[in-house]
């Protein structure tokens, strides 16, 4: 298990740094051959960032995705963290957490707990 993430302005990177789990940031062409949780920011009006969308088009990457976490801004209202809903709809994986900006201690604890459950389920 590992964390795969994409950050543009540092909020997701901050969340990842608090998790102390193996992680890799998405760049063009990345293939992940291990089960992982995806953490992404939300772009546009509830959109999945293009680079994340492209990453998920790869069959291996889609097969290893076990859960999604999105960071957004609650001021976006109905579109808050909608990237997570879209990924959930398109891949069938559970939404682990929707996080406002850099999140809280509780957000970090929830991700860690779900991550450990996923590790133990193997
Ligand atoms: C152009 C732009 C569009 C955004 N659109 C949304 C949105 O639709 N929904 C949402 O919840 N957050 C939205 N956000 C907020 C970001 O997803 C949020 O600040 C996130 O924490 C950024 O993560 P990062 O710092 O790792 O890039 C948007 C931010 C920007 C700059």
From TrEMBL:
This is Ribonucleotide reductase stimulatory protein. PANTHER family: PROTEIN NRDI. It holds the Pfam family Flavodoxin_NdrI. InterPro entries: Flavoprotein-like_sf (IPR029039), RNR_NrdI (IPR004465). One of its GO terms (molecular function) is FMN binding.
């Amino acid at each position: 298990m590992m964390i795969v993430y994409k950050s543009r302005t540092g909020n997701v990177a901050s969340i990842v740094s608090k998790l102390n789990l193996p992680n890799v940031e998405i760049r063009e062409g990345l293939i992940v051959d291990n089960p992982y949780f995806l953490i992404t920011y939300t772009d546009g009006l509830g959109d999945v960032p293009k680079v994340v969308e492209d990453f998920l088009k790869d069959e291996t990457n889609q097969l290893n995705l076990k859960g999604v976490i999105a960071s957004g801004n609650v001021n976006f209202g109905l579109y808050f963290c909608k990237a997570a809903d879209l990924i959930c709809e398109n891949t069938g994986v559970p939404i682990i957490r929707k996080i406002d900006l850099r999140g809280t201690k509780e957000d970090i604890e929830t991700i860690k707990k779900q991550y450990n459950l996923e590790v133990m389920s193997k």
